[in-house]
Amino acid sequence: MMTITRNATAVVAATVLALSCKHDGATSEAPGAQRSRTTSAAISELLAGVPGSAAALGFIDMPEAPWSFVTGGGPFPLDDATRKTLDKELRAYVDRYLGMDLSGLQYAVGFVAGPPVRGAVLLKAVKGSPRMPGASEHEGGKLWVVDPAQRLSLAIRGDVVVFGENAAVREVLETLAGKHKAVTEDNKPLVEWLRKETAGAAAAFAAIKPKDVPLPPQLAGIERAVAAFGASGVSAAVEGDDATISSLAAMADKALADMLAEVEKPHAAAVSGALPRPKARSRSSAPRTRGATRRGSSLGGPATGSRSRSTSGYRAPAPR
């Protein structure tokens, strides 16, 4: 086994900066206190709906529902009366157009399975039913074909929404109904790898090399990989043959070096004084301002009249 270098991890961190802007699952604590968090039970419930053919899993485990964050004012907390009014109006708007209650939407699990390659995402928790025609029943859930050309479907079963490729969505409903074995039973190595390496993360991804799907040559030597993002930072690990992992680490290091080099250029120019001077604007392109001339006594008494005219450049107003 080989673990990706610090620099390679930094590349991953740069791509998911937005995910780790907000701490995951911490409540009000004293400054400097250690925060610990375990993965929500809802993630395990959603994993139980993922079919056993899944070769890659990912999840998002938010510390609070986005609805609460929005109606609470986000970084600018609202007073209780304003928050309640916003919550009421937003609920009415969403219900009018979607017919669903999204206030509890907080958790997501996605998967890729194959062959043939297919995937879907499971979201929890919602209430109600979409205001869309054409619903059909399938294994205890309601199913809509959203885009026949792209083979995309949407389904709701209980408080879980499923969206993805037609076959994958149907397979999730069948798995939830007990017609197929879940990934938690049929691919325990993948689930255990995910749980072991990502406990308490806000978002995570794990994959195990599929048995019947050939990988590109540059990835053929990888056996499994995982990445996790949370309050404590970003972690990533890859297992496989040394040559493949060394090659991946080298590519990641180069990408980071190139990125840092680009960032360093303006900094170095500023330090050396080599930054180009701003271009001087010609008088014809200078903004035209309004200069005022007021008539009054020589001692600055009350004005007897006023006039203004456009001037080129800046004209200081006469003393009152």
Report on this model:
- The protein is α+β, with helices and mostly antiparallel strands and 320 residues long.
- The chain folds into 3 domains: 1-20 and 210-270, no CATH class; 37-65 and 104-186, no CATH class; 68-99.
- Helices cover 31% and strands 27% of the residues.
- The protein has helices at residues 6-15, 41-47, 66-71, 80-97, 166-176, 183-186, 188-198, 242-272, and strands at residues 54-61, 100-101, 107-113, 118-124, 127-128, 136-138, 141-147, 152-157, 160-165, 203-208, 222-230, 233-240, 288-295, 305-312.
- A 10-stranded antiparallel sheet has the order 6-7-8-9-4-3-1-10-11-12, sandwiched between helices. A two-stranded antiparallel ribbon has the order 2-5.
- Strand 8 (152-157) and strand 9 form a beta hairpin.
- Helix 1 (6-15) packs across helix 8 (242-272).
- The termini are far apart.
Key features?
single chain, 320 residues, alpha+beta, ten-stranded antiparallel β-sheet, two-stranded antiparallel sheet, 14 strands, disordered N terminus
